[in-house]
Amino acid sequence: MDRRAFLFGSLGALAAPLVAEAQPAAKVYRIGVLTGGSRPSPTAPSSLREGLRDLGWVEGKNIVFEGRYAEGKQERLPELAGELINLKVDVIVTFGTPAALAARKATSTVPIVLGMIGDPVRVGLVTSLARPGGNVTGNSLIAPELGLKRLELLKEAIPKAKRIGLPYDPANPAAAAVRDDLEAAARSLGMELYPIEVRHPDQLEGTFAAAANAGVDALLLFSDPVFFSARTRIMALALKHRLPSMSEGKEFVEAGGLISYSPSIPALARRAAIFIDKILRGARPADLPIEQPTTFELVINLTTAKALGLTIPPAFLLRADQVID
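and the corresponding structure tokens:
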């Protein structure tokens, strides 16, 4: 080797580490989580993290989470959504209609993934399920369409149940639509819907007592983030006042409720992870159709049935995907 070749070769070897050191660090994406409920339950946020991990996203390495929780105070959601925008998050995943609306009002550019919501078209979040448009996409629980099915199942399990209590938070824009649909569904089945206004978890004791005094035969619970966070307390009050329940989520049944018929919430959170993955890799929310669940779980808590003195028809039990006893 001549001296010139040796010299340039040596300089190249010395320069190589400097070039490597000059490479920019891999981008760390910030994922905002916004909900009207309390600090992460062991269900949705953990499933979201697991779903992202399965897709190659490692917390602390290429993604970080910024969580904002209204703790039942829905009026705080706009402020919390603003905080996430100020943190310059790359995407916001929301749980519940109020959180989604707050996020959409805060930004028209940052992508928003709906972790769980009833009907995003009806509340004005997207143009259509197939073509969302704008910066919003994700999962729809199609709650209004499932209301009739839940009432049918409740009637089958408890034929004597005629007056059905519906706890709802008037601050949740989805509540009015759900209530209207359920009132029509109840009438078609010869049942009566009894709305129970609950503006804050502190009102649960009084409203449940009033419902029991009003002759409510059973409760119908949908997955409002505030109710979901307070589900253990709600189920304890339902048992105290001897009110069987049909819930939108097996987590209510695991907390002591009687029956649930719903899509899997952990599965929805994992689907949200797929939306986030696509967006972080360059997809536009406007081009990602809103997804609806296709499989549903019927879960029954026999321990609660016994505590309430109820006998669930054997044919109904055979249809259950899971029986807790």
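(Above: one complete record from the training split.) Confidence is low (pLDDT under 50) at residues 1-24.
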